[in-house]
Amino acid sequence: MKRPIITLTTDWGNQSFFAGMVKGRLYSLIEDVEVVDVAHSVEPFKVAEATFVVRNACLAFPAGTIHIVDVASDPTQENAFVVVKARGQYFICCDNGLPTMAFGHEVEEAVSIPLQEMRIYNFAAYSLFAPTAAKLAGGTPMADLGPRVEQLRQRMLPSWVSQGDEYRIPIQYIDSYGNAYLGMSYREFMDLCQGRPFMMQVREYRITEIRSSYYQKPTQPTHRAARAGGIELCLTVSATGMLEIAISNSNFAQYIGMQLGEMVLLQFITR
User: Fold this and answer.
1) pLDDT given at position 1
2) Fold of the 161-268 domain
């Protein structure tokens, strides 16, 4: 890759100067670099939310891209700073569970980034991640960045679980429109469905079909309980292949009051 690409995924928010500060350092350290903002609106310290962003946005970049992920990046004995290679891309982050939640067995290599004594690392993305990205962009092998990590911290991204004929699916992410992304992919849904009718319970509301877009009209009579004050809930599929609940031209999460981690129930009907 001739022109280095470095992305930023953080919980800094969009009203602080942090992104500009880190971008300035990257542009100063790396010639002809392209810096891309993936997201700065991850809820502070929410590693699972950052994982969702990494899995669904960062992995769309070309091989060789360097990703800085600064969410809950506090160096401790358990949470070292690391560089992780997965799917041919490089991720500079904290070993706080994000690498294993995002990549699992797809991790190709991992090294820890040594900390210098008497240095302050309250802003790791600026003081440590940016210089490490510059070394990678300059062709430094991972083995020269630090000692090999044999075992990353193990965590699992919350996903669906089955209880008999019922499936409990968590909300993994809520976007800026209030659309809720569920912890079940459309492919997983179809494998379980096998052509059977289904019913999804979202609090007191029920959904019985998947639509191809937010604006598609129901193809079958809408269950009365699927309407929220005249506004109709829509189950569709996100561009990332996950089941998604939305309300056309409205904010679903705000209207219903749904939150990250809340469960919806799914049942398949055998006739």
Assistant:
1) 52
2) Elongation Factor Tu (Ef-tu); domain 3 (2.40.30)
